[in-house]
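We recall that each integer encodes one residue's backbone shape. We quote one record:
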Amino acid sequence: MPTKKSEKTAGDQAPEAGEPAKKAKKEAPPKGTKVAKPAAGNKPNALQQPLQPSEELAAVVGEGKLARGEVVSKVWEYIKSHKLQNPDDGREILADDKLKKVFGKDKVTMFEMNKHLAAHLK
């Protein structure tokens, strides 16, 4: 049993003055990792469900069924490759002829975009 205040027993783990406290680190998965496909027999979730794009949306993302996440990624690729983001406000998308058919107007925000895309996926 310690007799002085400065002595510590083995159970005391508080850091000394001037010593940094140890923090537990959480390891996050690296950015850019793809969502795992469901195992055989498991039902895919809403983001993995293959959906058929409308003719207007297919002109941008291509023919064939795609998962909702893949559609959004391909639309962003199209937007960036055609430089359709507003240079003054990156949240705004300036639609070209193909995207006007999907969005129904000349300008949409990135937050509105998913609402318009959902109307073109079945």
Observations:
- Helices lie at 55-61, 68-81, 97-103, 110-118.
- The beta strands are 50-51, 66-67, 92-94, 107-109.
